[in-house]
From TrEMBL:
Gene that produces this protein: QSER1
Ranges of residues in domain DUF4211: 100-217
PANTHER family: COILED-COIL DOMAIN-CONTAINING PROTEIN 82 (PTHR14689:SF0), PHORBOL-ESTER_DAG-TYPE DOMAIN-CONTAINING PROTEIN (PTHR14689)
Top-level taxon: Eukaryota
Biased composition (Basic and acidic residues): 315-327
GO cellular component: nucleus
Organism: Halocaridina rubra
Stated name of the protein: DUF4211 domain-containing protein
């Protein structure tokens, strides 16, 4: 499991080493109240340098065939272990997946649960009908459009907070807004960070995916100026913050993709089920909806905390500088 995903997602994907140089992705899905993982045809590079970006997970097999594998994650490797040790597998310390840090959702965020339910209904409807978002914006359907705007604005607020504490150039920020996915690898290049130009680069951020219309979520072809702006060598700080920014920026698209995947799975397993029945059944799945809502709020809370921490550090520095100046002036007066 990628360490960056652990801090940003409730059910991050896991990866299986495939051969000597590839990782195969396992995507999370819900079944009978459990979170399971199914292999998909997405791969990433695997090198000895990339090992530091991941943490081991323990799984049990639920189903396996020639082409499909479904597993359940039961533990996460203790990250405080010495990675260079030669401990036997049975001596590895596994932490239960349920011991992950929980974030208390404030009353203010909880008040947006009704808005989120309609927001999610909108995304499910878009997954069922690719013209749905286009039509509600053309018709200015307040019931859906206003709720979508409310959730979008909450995400925009978090984007603004991140942008307040970084010094990214426009090219890097625009790339983050354009490409919905990001992959990070370690780089040994000693050049300066291509995002802030303040620190040496330590990571290679690879942006990818399909550009899309922010309003209708329909895929679009990348513009010529966007095609060559996908790889950036960045410092640790910009790497961490850009991953968080990318997640918030593409929040709606990510949730739409999850809805689309759920709808597709339902249509495959129940081909005769009518569209309205699929919509009704998904909206009746309180466990699924609450999980998505908590995941969204958790991301926002992490941004809020990070923003406040940055402000505290900045204020402490300003106070220390002011105290230093006062002390210097007092010394000069005494002299």
């Amino acid at each position: 499991m990628a360490k960056k995903d652990m801090d940003m997602m409730d059910h991050p994907p896991i990866w299986r080493i495939d051969g000597k140089s590839l990782l195969q992705k396992f995507q999370a899905f819900e079944k009978d109240g459990k979170t399971l993982y199914r292999n998909i045809s997405t791969y990433s590079g695997w090198t000895s340098q990339a090992k530091a970006l991941y943490v081991g997970v323990k799984v049990t097999f639920v189903f396996q065939s020639r082409y499909d594998t479904v597993v359940e994650m039961v533990g996460i490797k203790n990250q405080e272990e010495d990675e260079s040790s030669n401990d036997k597998p049975e001596e590895v310390v596994w932490v239960s997946k349920n011991q992950q840090q929980d974030y208390e959702i404030s009353e203010e965020l909880r008040s947006h649960m009704p808005d989120f339910e309609i927001y999610l209904q909108t995304l499910i409807s878009q997954a069922l009908d690719n013209n749905f978002l286009k039509e509600i914006y053309e018709e200015n359907d307040d019931y859906f459009v206003e709720r979508v705007k409310i959730i979008d604005e909450l995400a925009e607020e978090r984007k603004r907070k991140i942008l307040e504490i970084v010094q990214w150039n426009d090219k890097f920020r625009n790339s983050l807004d354009t490409w919905p996915c990001i992959n990070v690898m370690i780089t040994k290049n000693a050049d300066m960070c291509q995002a802030c130009s303040n620190q040496p680069a330590t990571k290679l951020s690879q942006l990818y995916g399909q550009p899309y219309n922010q309003e209708t979520l329909r895929s679009r072809e990348p513009m010529p100026s966007e095609v060559d702006t996908k790889n950036y060598e960045v410092c640790d700080r910009c790497s961490n913050l850009s991953q968080m920014y990318n997640k918030v920026s593409h929040q709606k698209y990510d949730y739409y993709s999850q809805c689309k995947s759920t709808v597709t799975n339902t249509r495959v397993t129940h081909p005769s089920k009518h569209t309205t029945t699929i919509l009704r059944d998904l909206l009746a799945n309180d466990h699924w909806i609450m999980g998505l809502f908590r995941s969204m709020c958790t991301t926002w809370i992490k941004v809020d905390r990070l923003y406040q921490e940055e402000l505290n550090v900045k204020n402490d520095g300003a106070e220390a500088e002011a105290s230093k100046e006062e002390s210097s002036e007092a010394t000069e007066t005494a002299t």
